[in-house]
Amino acid sequence: MEFRPIPKGKGIRDLYRAADGQPASDDPSKERTATAETAAVEPDQFEVRDPKYRMSDVILPEATRDQITVLLSRIRNHDLIYHQWGLVEVDPIGQSKAVNFYGPPGTGKSMLAEALASELGLRVLDVSYAEIESKYVGDTPKKIRAVFRAVHQATPSPVLLFFDEADAILGRRMTNVTQAADHSVNVSRAVMLKELDLAKGIVVFATNLARNIDAAFVRRIMQHVPVPLPDEPGRFRIWERMITSRVPGREAVDWAALAARSEGLSGGDIRNAVVLALARVAERFGLEQVVRTSDLEQAIKHVRQAKKAIGRRRREPRAWHTTIDRYTFDSGAESNGESDASS
């Protein structure tokens, strides 16, 4: 991380003023601008587009689909519930239209956000943490404001704002602040909280690590919807959907066997297995260029091996017990568990 130095004699008050777009000094002639280091953040740097998916494209467990039905009702009937039925009188700060989709990687959270936009007749502005994080102290809050301005200024139709990797954006604020970077993180969180309070449109977050979200954000989000790994009927439908009618040999594939053997895999994992299998089929010639159930089962095995190898927790020799991150090192033995932080 690269830091902009705070002028001598100035403190954290100036950092907060800078994050709010105010001069760091009471004397404008002494203001240190960032023009030479970073361009101004403008709303048009963020692209608004049409959604790519519809709700019929998303395969969900029945319990999750039921929650989506309730969510759509809350959004469509917001005026009825809060104003005509008077809920605003007892819950004046509970009118947020922010939503959080949480669950393991590859379960379709981003697809679901786009399908929600499509269902509501909205366009999408999607933002990842990488697009708003800056190496310069004070720039990330400005980018957060610019994102919300882009939504407010979007024409001709309303926009759904989608934040991917939300655990990085909504993480817990730091209490043991020791340097400018720590202050900047807290300012970014405060700015996001303020923008959520002011937002009139729909904001959707997606996260693999919901437990890392700050409690202040949890309270401001009107509904948290779990998007779990697919159950067996869901995996059956995903396999059928992924292998299109144009793939030779499709009619002989045993979908039930694939659904049973892919337990614990996400929709993204199944997609990867399909690509691997079809790449193998494409190398064949003539009558042999057909997909077989065995091709897909072999691909499932490769996907599982990759997930296990990449997500493996490793134990190394230590003379004492100590915890580093979430891994405990106490022996030379190697754990076979998989990391829940895999992406």
Overview of this structure, please?
The structure is a single chain. The protein is an alpha/beta fold and 343 residues long. It folds into 3 domains: 34-226, P-loop containing nucleotide triphosphate hydrolases (Rossmann fold, 3-Layer(aba) Sandwich); 232-310, Helicase, Ruva Protein, domain 3 (Orthogonal Bundle), CATH 1.10.8.60; 314-343, no CATH class. 42% of the residues lie in helices and 9% in strands. It contains 14 helices and 7 strands. It has helices at residues 12-19, 62-76, 78-84, 87-90, 109-119, 129-132, 139-153, 166-169, 180-198, 215-220, 232-242, 255-261, 267-282, 293-310, and strands spanning 98-102, 123-127, 159-163, 202-207, 223-226, 322-324, 327-329. The strands form 2 sheets. Strands 2-3-4-1-5 form a 5-stranded parallel sheet, sandwiched between helices. Helix 11 runs parallel beside helix 13 (267-282) and helix 12 (255-261) packs parallel to helix 14 (293-310). The protein is elongated. It starts with 11 loop residues before the first helix and ends in a 14-residue tail after the last strand.
- CATH-assigned homologous superfamily of the largest domain: P-loop containing nucleotide triphosphate hydrolases
Question: How large a portion of the residues is in β-strands, by DSSP E?
Answer: 5-15%
Please mark out the parts with pLDDT under 50 across 5 or more consecutive residues, or reply none.
Answer: 1-19, 23-39, 314-343
Under the CATH scheme, which architecture of the largest domain would be assigned? 3-Layer(aba) Sandwich
Lateral strand order in the biggest sheet: 2-3-4-1-5
For the residues shown, what is the average pLDDT?
Answer: 79
Coarse shape: elongated
Return the domain count: 3
Structural class by SSE content:
alpha/beta
CATH class of the largest domain: Alpha Beta
Helix content range of the residues, please? 40-55%
Number of beta-strand segments = 7
